[in-house]
Specification:
By secondary structure, this protein is an alpha/beta fold. 42% of the residues lie in helices and 16% in strands. A four-stranded mixed β-sheet has the order 9-1-10-11, covered by helices on one side. It has a four-stranded parallel β-sheet with strand order 5-6-7-8. It has a three-stranded parallel β-sheet with strand order 2-3-4, covered by helices on one side.
């Protein structure tokens, strides 16, 4: 990594704007950016400037290490009580016959399909329906743990938990404690959308509020547990709404330290009530990721969820602050394909993920959900192995 004096010289070559030079100095000296700084970055900063600074922060935290895991998705249902205008997934307001509603037994059958594969995580998230209540999910988590104790259960968003706990007439604290006791290991970051009420009420009315989303994560963190955070961007929000969202996350992280990674989620406009809105450009995507890396100084990781953003863009973002590209996702996750994601067959085997990371000049690290290192792939080669969807890693012969 270039030394700080060299980076300051590069900043001066990239921009003549004095405000941006002062912000760069803050970043290079390890000082926190203000909300006003973030707004200036959104309004003025170009990708070259942002890439230089975001990569500096990424390199300070992780060097060239880039993380992924072996995971699969379990989506209990695509039928939902809520009618979010950005959603292309729910079938309640469309054709109910296109929907699915798995029983506990059917979900366990899906889990068992991965018994002979070295996946480390099951990611469970879907629609909200009355039958998926507190008992249903505590029974499901317990059943998974009884069947495969080593499988990390990352499940449900505050949108689901808020509904479940309200229906069961339990507090957030009591409800999250019950989920932990049943076998829940961590929470994904979904359902955050945009916290600001003037936008949230328009695109996700009826769901838990931004404050309630944060409150549920707070209770989970109080139990000593970890979770992720997201933001849906590129629709009707403006820069101030984004900054309010990022600042809310940063404040809770200051309080609890329980967030692991931040995942920007790009709005996709196919098959939903907001299809008239043009999607953000790749340049805008890059800028949002880089600014997130600079502003969220207390978040260890920034993730590009490749099934949503696309493989090539995810690879490019590794030079703009991103250090994680999610996992193999050995299941056909449908949420983003329904919304028009470029990835119509969103599954990559380990070989493909490792090659994608190496081609970007980075070092692939297989992690578990909590970022413990499972295997380093810097000096590994691959050999065909039909038992795990294409490849396994083998150490290079000395």
């Amino acid at each position: 990594m270039k030394d700080i004096s060299t980076l300051k010289t590069l900043v001066n070559q990239i921009t003549k704007d004095e405000d941006l030079k002062l912000i760069a100095a803050k970043v290079l000296e390890g000082n926190r950016l203000s909300e006003e700084d973030a707004l200036l970055l959104f309004e003025k900063a170009n990708p070259s400037y942002l890439g230089l600074l975001a990569n500096f922060v990424r390199t300070q935290k992780h060097g060239k290490k880039t993380y992924f895991n072996r995971n699969f998705h379990l989506e209990p249902t695509n039928v939902c009580l809520y009618t979010c205008t950005f959603c292309s997934y729910s079938r309640l307001i469309k054709k109910r016959e296109e929907g699915w509603e798995y029983s506990l037994e059917e979900m366990m059958e899906i889990i068992k399909k991965y018994d002979d594969q070295p996946v480390t995580e099951v990611h469970i998230v879907g629609g909200v329906l009355p039958q998926y209540n507190l008992k249903f999910y505590t029974d499901l988590f317990t059943s998974i743990k009884n069947h495969r104790p080593d499988l990390h259960v990352k499940a449900l968003t505050p949108v689901e938990y808020h509904y479940i706990f309200k229906k069961a007439k339990v507090s957030y604290a009591e409800g999250m404690a019950k989920m932990k006791a049943a076998g829940l290991d961590s929470m994904p970051g979904g359902g955050a959308e945009i916290f600001h009420p003037e936008i949230r009420d328009e695109i996700a009315g009826g769901k838990c509020s931004g404050e309630e989303w944060l409150a549920i994560h707070r209770e989970w963190h109080k139990l000593g547990m970890r979770s992720n955070a997201t933001m849906l961007y590129g629709h009707i929000e403006n820069y101030n709404h984004r900054i309010h969202h990022l600042s809310s996350l940063r404040k809770l992280q200051d309080e609890t330290g329980g967030f692991q990674t931040f995942i920007p989620l790009k709005f996709r406009n196919k098959g939903n009530q907001m299809s008239h809105i043009e999607e953000s450009t790749t340049i805008e995507d890059i800028r949002l990721y880089a600014i997130s890396r600079l502003f969220l100084d207390n978040f260890e990781h920034i993730k590009a969820y490749w099934p949503m953003i696309g493989r090539q863009v995810a690879q490019m973002l590794l030079a703009f602050g991103v250090d994680d590209i999610d996992g193999t996702i050995d299941d056909t996750t449908k949420i983003y394909t329904m919304a028009g994601s470029e990835e119509q067959t969103p599954a990559m085997n380990t070989y493909e993920l490792v090659q994608l990371i190496k081609q970007a000049g980075m070092e692939p690290i297989e992690r578990d959900t909590l970022y413990n290192v499972v295997k380093e792939y810097k000096d590994h080669v691959f050999e065909e192995d039909k038992s795990f969807k294409g490849y396994v890693s083998l150490p290079v012969a000395n």
